[in-house]
TrEMBL record, chains A, B:
Organism field: Salinispora arenicola
InterPro entries per record: Aminotransferase_I/II_large, Class-I_PLP-dep_aminotransf, PyrdxlP-dep_Trfase, PyrdxlP-dep_Trfase_major, PyrdxlP-dep_Trfase_small
Protein name as catalogued: (S)-3,5-dihydroxyphenylglycine transaminase
GO molecular-function term, one example from the UniProt record: pyridoxal phosphate binding
Protein's GO biological process: alpha-amino acid metabolic process
Segments forming domain Aminotransferase class I/classII large: 77-419
Cofactor(s) demanded: pyridoxal 5'-phosphate
Keyword terms: Aminotransferase, Pyridoxal phosphate, Transferase
Length: 437, 437
């Protein structure tokens, strides 16, 4: 029995679905290269023994706080369980403590990472071939990939230096509607976005909510990096914290704040859904129905680890990530300082200056494609991410993404030295070719 | 912002997606009822402290057997990881030890429970509106629900006492093709099926594989209960063990053999897929691409728990489940003996006599719907599952499913007493109504 890729779902032939695989394969192929590519969290603080402690902490919570008997504890941790999860009350407390958000725990679905949350939301919203999703570009490739699997077209919304071009957003909504399409939502990361690093300022957050309400458009707010400001500025409120009209579906991740290996994320979906019989439910309950047929429920063992971390820090991830925040801020500063030294004023190389998060985008005077990444890894020993992976249109992009999350200052120094050589080599090589013709 | 269910994906209005929710809600609504409904594994042997031991065992395996450094151990367990999983080599060893199957570990994708495995396979195979899935009916509702989410029509194949009506299977394939449709695969559980309890005899296994090869049809073999024969008979080989032509996609679950709360399952997909460029890959690699956009990867912490159990039993789940097998066999005997005593020969009540697994189907002289389940719970204090949930056509079914997996012999006695009263009440009530007209 042999299959042909053309007989499988079209997404399997799509670059968006190959993007992560490609980047992982390049990294595996050049294990000695310095990697400024991976958006993984810092791993020096991981402790195996802490796993046991988190599990014990959560078990005590079930007994002492929730009054569960030993049999109930076993059932909670070992059996099939509540589709919407078992740490929803702790997630709600976390959102209250860290974000000042008041969230009904019943409006939360705990998911297998934020990726599943995204997938469930898109599956529920994509009802018809006329449905399209808007997404602020450049866009996290996992969003594009999930949409592809669901035959949901993604239309880009332009980015400005303040995150989202509101006029373009309104224009895209109107354009789609004039074409007979239904824009179901706009996806965006308002804080230290992946990959742009950009954050939306306060005034634009309110304007964005007003626009969404006027246009009757859902916003899908993804917030994996919000706890990592680099300076001492107060963090801005999330869109969901400002949302008075249930306009925002909020996606949360514990991958960057607790650990990726738990694969625990969540979605807050407090929108009311009117049923065929006129009865209303929460969108979260509809997402749970989808989830029951995708993964049944999120591993209670994995949830227990995340729950243990939350319980040990009074449900504050700001408190839980104090050490990591210092590392990320230091690394971000070290990277931008290093860029200044290596590419002085007048250089054709420019870069963004994010106020937090993991990512800096470097613009170079040549298009950056996958072949160049291979050359950079092979000849210069340094890995980064071509920004073209975050656009969906195949147009060449003269930029690359650098990540500071899983490296030391020494890695950054070595990596930037090599990137400087690589850029110089490219510029010289292209100059030589140009003059040879 | 308010949504209407009609604006969401059509599956959300479908009975198949509400089935699990409905059954869970009934169970929660009548907590004091005896439940012969739940297909959960036996929970008396669960031990919280064993979780720590499994994690430690798996950590030692990473260090001692795979030579990982402490940093690599942290990365394996805490970080994002291999999309196809980190216990694939142990799963392959398990299949060799327990099933005599030789499986390339690279052809295995470790998934978030068997449900995700099912979902990934259906997503990959459903490329076109002409695609349909065949499934031996009655069918596990999770299969139907997953297919609904993917707009994949499911066509039933008739069951005989030996599991699958081969003539009907061939007829369904031809009928679909003559309608211009593409039957992509046939889903079935050859061993102690949920819900029918039926197993396919050896001769039919070979005939089924021959038919699949002749018709160029994939078989999706789901095997959650195969390790639980009730007698001393040798277990039959799986279809995949007999498969010489890569005709079978094999779905595995650790929910019934290790613990549901790990949410770890897997798929063996060793089919070759020819790409647009002529290069071949394994179907497992295509499924991994889908998975990367659904859940990224399966929690390595959850995999470590399953890995620890496998390692502690020489990768034999036959060995790991010795105590449970005794319980299930005893309960199944106790249930069928109890049915004999309560419904003597000549009664209009009949039941299946499975040779293993969790389930017995009881046929009664009246249609069994959800309203009757409510009445049984409310008035008689006993829960079971209406067989109508496992058919997709809305036709009334005169049968209910009893499960023996999560109960004691005393529960079975009390449950059967109540079912006998319930059946008597229904028969009398209906007789009264009939004679009143």
């Amino acid at each position: 029995m042999e299959l042909h890729v053309d007989d499988l779902h079209a997404a399997l032939g799509d670059p968006a679905l190959n993007s992560m695989n490609f980047l992982n394969e390049v990294a595996q192929h050049y294990p000695d290269a310095v990697s400024l590519a991976a958006g993984r969290p810092y791993e020096e603080f991981f402790e195996f023994s802490a796993l046991h402690r988190y599990l014990d902490t959560f078990r005590r919570h079930l007994v002492d706080d929730l009054g569960q008997s030993p049999g109930q504890v076993h059932r909670t941790l070992f059996q099939y369980g509540r589709t919407k999860g078992i740490v929803h009350h702790l997630v709600a407390r976390n959102l209250a403590v860290d974000e000042g958000m008041t969230v009904d725990p019943e409006a939360i679905v705990v998911t297998v990472g934020c990726q599943e949350a995204m997938f469930l939301v898109l599956r529920a919203l994509r009802a018809d071939p006329r449905d399209v999703l808007l997404a602020v570009a450049p866009t996290y490739v996992g969003l594009t990939g999930a949409a592809r699997l669901l035959d949901l077209a993604v239309r880009p919304v332009a980015t400005t230096e303040s995150g989202v071009d509101l006029a373009d957003l309104r224009g895209q909504i109107h354009r789609a509607r004039s074409e007979g399409l239904r824009p179901r939502a706009c996806y965006l990361m308002p804080d230290f976005a992946n990959p742009s690093g950009v954050s939306i300022p306060m005034s634009d957050r309110r304007a964005l909510l007003d626009l969404a309400q006027e246009e009757n458009l859902l916003l899908i707010e993804d917030n994996p990096y919000g706890l990592f400001p680099a300076g001492d500025d107060r963090r801005l409120p999330t869109l969901k914290a400002l949302d008075t009209n249930r306009q925002v579906i909020y996606l949360g991740s514990f991958a960057k704040t607790v650990l990726p290996g738990a694969r625990v994320g969540y979605v807050v979906a407090d929108q009311r859904v009117v049923g065929a019989d006129g009865a209303t439910s929460l969108l979260a309950d509809q997402l749970a129905k989808v989830k029951s047929m995708v993964t049944v429920n999120t591993s209670p063992l994995a949830q227990a680890v995340v729950g243990g971390v939350l319980l040990e820090h009074g449900c504050s991830l700001v408190a839980a990530t104090a050490r990591e925040r210092v590392v990320y801020a230091r690394n971000l500063r070290h990277l931008t300082d290093g860029l200044v030294r290596r590419f002085p004023a007048g250089s054709s190389v420019r870069w963004t200056a994010p106020t937090g998060g993991f990512f800096v985008v470097v613009t170079v005077p040549f298009p950056v494609d996958d072949a160049l990444l291979h050359r950079s890894a092979r000849e210069y020993g340094v890995l980064w991410t071509p920004m073209a992976h975050f656009y969906d249109d195949g147009i060449p992009v003269h930029a690359l993404r650098l990540s500071v999350s899983a490296v030391t200052p020494e890695d950054i120094d070595r990596g930037l030295d090599r990137i400087a050589e690589f850029v110089a080599g490219e510029v010289a090589g292209r100059g030589a070719v140009a003059s040879a013709y």
